[in-house]
């Protein structure tokens, strides 16, 4: 698929001013200014995150109500249920709250809804379970902000809710005892991009601040928070950067027993970065709720039978891959045999036989082949339910909200959302969704873009340069690994195809500064490389070969 190279612009005056203060390579100052960092003090906070930079949790609307209600429950020996979604953010949130309170308070338990019976979010079945078993307080995490009817139902049964969520609220808020959500319009909390587990962390931080100081124990659990931040693809900025920075330290040095076992089971070697969580750990945690039972993920994360649970999650993940492959193939065939689908700006597909736990992954896979907003639906309990995924620059949540007249319920973020509808509304939804995309999506956005952060010469790439570049980590949304461009490079005569379809490069410029690179799945570019000067964009990385570390380029594209 052809790609657009987009070089981001920057205020050179600001770059020069920052360079005078920091005395580092101007390229780094350019990268910092593009991240909104323009002063020495801001750069210091970026490169040296401190836990003291975290905001006062009581700046969040309803925080005082939330911790007071929990304190009352502990004093009165009420039974507390910790309720969370079945994905990584939900299960890590539940594990964090449960693990914090359980050593000091035995009357607490957790509940994860069944994806196939109850569906996403707070369920009436979950509330009935709480009533039957004597729970009078439910702390919900990563869900609840749109559970209007469910909270009314809980209130009728005498069960209080403290909602901790980070999704966008609807026009009406549930009548819960307290609602913690930085995206509430009436919430002045300074940082809006916390994960669901991050909101749970702020609740515990506030509890420590008001009632007793267990901050050291709380901070030792930041590895779980870092996993949620990475898996939920939230921006690695502000508080998330601080939490991820310290969480990764714990994950690499002294992880919780469950995560340690998962790392071993997934055979993750070396330093664990955000990418390792996203591609190696998170899929295994997610696989529990996709293929079997999300409670198994919580059991792992709280250290219950960690070895057995890690092995179970590994098997779930293998099963998930198989189902994912079959569904993706079927979905691509549906598009390819219908000209109407091929010529659209969106993809909306339904198959009643598809696995509910894998529809979101399949939506992402289809974007690799047909780069456009995608909705994949299956049938569950008489309704169509599924997931939406988007492309850079297009807000799929707004698109779905514009079609809400045909939906039973929906929720999510800019680039990912969930939705449910009656079967008879499928065609009407698909048409209105396509009409919205046609009207609001610029044609140029249908070509994948590569953001070029800076132009650089090969002669500038050395160990000193890379050692500073590494300090921009942890990388993730809004702080991605910088992509560099170098123009008019030449093959040294040693470039070749490696494996089945990888491009192994050795390039130089003006016969000097030879450097190696690898382009995964880019074997077809060898002809371009060997015929003369070419431009390339890439990420700078380290590679370990025969116990020796050397710098190499991870090629993103060649022109």
Sheet of most strands: 5 strands, parallel
User: Quaternary state, please?
Assistant: single chain
What is the CATH T-level topology of the largest domain?
inorganic pyrophosphatase (n-terminal core)
Structural class: alpha/beta
Widest sheet: strand order? 3-2-4-5-6
- Please give the CATH architecture of the largest domain: Alpha-Beta Complex
Q: What is the end-to-end distance?
A: 13 Å
CATH class of the largest domain: Alpha Beta
Structural features, described:
- This protein has 559 residues and is α/β, with parallel strands linked by helices.
- The chain folds into four domains: 7-46; 57-313, inorganic pyrophosphatase (n-terminal core); 338-446, Diaminopimelate Epimerase, Chain A, domain 1, CATH 3.10.310; 450-559, OB fold (Dihydrolipoamide Acetyltransferase, E2P).
- Helix content is 42%, strand content 20%.
- The protein has helices at 12-22, 26-34, 40-47, 63-75, 88-101, 124-132, 148-156, 196-210, 215-219, 222-231, 238-253, 257-265, 274-291, 295-301, 306-336, 339-342, 359-369, 396-401, 426-440, 463-469, 526-531; strands at residues 4-7, 79-84, 108-111, 135-141, 160-164, 178-180, 347-350, 374-380, 383-389, 409-412, 416-421, 449-452, 454-455, 484-491, 496-498, 502-509, 512-519, 534-545, 548-558.
- The strands form four sheets. Strands 3-2-4-5-6 form a five-stranded parallel beta sheet, sandwiched between helices.
- Helix 5 (88-101) links the parallel strand 2 (79-84) and strand 3.
- The longest helix is centred in the middle third of the chain and has 31 residues, at 306-336.
